[in-house]
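Interim report, section 4.2 (structural modelling).
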Amino acid sequence: MAADPNKLAIFVTSPQNMRHVVGIANAAKKAGKVPMIFFTYKSIHLTKDARFKGLAEMCGEENLAICADSYTCEGYDSAADIPAGLTANQMRTQAFHGALLDECGKYIVL
Amino acid sequence: MESLKVYILVANRMYCDGVRSGLGLAVENHYAYPVIMNGEFPTFSTYMTENIAWVMDMEGQVYSCGAPAPDNCVDEEGDKLIAEISLEELGEAMREADFIIPYGLQKQTNEPPPACAE
Amino acid sequence: MKILQVYRSEPNDQIKTLVGILNRDRDADEFFLNVESPDYDQLVAKVFAADKTVCWW
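Predicted structure of the assembly:
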């Protein structure tokens, strides 16, 4: 499958850039683009940010996921405490990052 | 699916998880090159050492840039698993990269206190 | 090739060296996120105009 030129991958690896994640995702949406976001490692703490649920709802189930192993490693319960705005289907592996690289025409790390 | 060349730069000792992230891409058939900058090495647990070896098995390579490759991360023959690369070599190599991922956070100013130094 | 360098904090000398090599003979642009109110619309436009984006720490 060729990368979609309208899709923007946002790979979130830092726990301190939520304003940029939300700002870029909103701007992409406004520009008619599709943000696709993966939160990994310590960035999964951002799932507890009050802005996370709205971000997840805007992106939709197919286009936002978190690393379930990272969530567990950081002490959260990936079965009983799925972050607000997510379903169990969005608790994923690093393969979702592979999908970002394959599916998105543009890519940014935060 | 095209195999992509991905460099993952780790500048902070807390973010050596970038190696696992690279391995995740390697098993998806991409070429992963995690680079540990300035000697910010992880503790070489069996898990970490196996991941570094696995990245090599998948035709990637873990590099050390700005510090000698550690001699406590070796294969069964005693050969170092981490290769050294200079900053200039890294820049030139990354010109051919499909993706460059500065991972996590920048290096800290202060040395870690005993509570988290190990 | 159009390459976009994005900075989340002030770049140090190592980053400047790498950027210098990456930008050589290329059409390079930059964007700073470490300001009070980044213009995210402009950043998205720059990302989509570039062939490659590197977002430094």
